[in-house]
User: Fold N-acetyltransferase domain-containing protein from Perkinsus olseni.
Amino acid sequence: MAVAGTMLTPAITNLLLEGGGKEAPSLRRDTNLIVNATQLDYRCALPSDNVTRIERLTDDSTDFVAVDPTAAEGEPVVGSLEYALISRENYGEWVYIDDVKVREDWRRKGVATQLIKRLLAYIKKGWPELDGAFLLVETLNPNSPQNLYKKIGFVYKGKSAHYDGFAFHFNSSSADNLPTDLPPTAMRLPTTNDYFVVDTLHDLFDPVEPK
Assistant:
């Protein structure tokens, strides 16, 4: 959500985890075995990926996607989310997650869970100095996914506007249970100065005075 005159130039950090950014041949899936979320590929979106979105919700964010490697050309993306780094003095460094979506024919198959857990695992591995991640849930949403987030390890942090805020801490026991079978992939960590994300950070977290 952009505000004219308040945005800073985003800092983009690129990281190649464990090699070439392409899955080794031995890790390719049998086209007859794509039956659940654990068998999908999880990576940053490519320019050629068809990520359906009316508008980007978070300034300077990037997309992390779940991909069916056996799908027809132009139809591989079955789930996506936006994410970006937010960093403020005395508030730490956090990844903000937004707009988690799963294609209708892949819902209730664990895609959202794997999508978030894989993102957290890659970020924790590539940037272990970060504090964790946070996201928002609409308070009055009758189909709220907060139980899904709690199962992953997110904990309730409080309210921001008309949302409930949840945080995942990289020093928690839940972080120890993140996936470790991470195929090589090129990860990006863009920085956002989106005013809404900054306000949310201040609402959910208490400032920590420097030692």
About this structure: The mean pLDDT is 84. The two ends are 34 Å apart (CA to CA). Residues 37-205 form a domain with the Aminopeptidase fold (CATH 3.40.630.30).
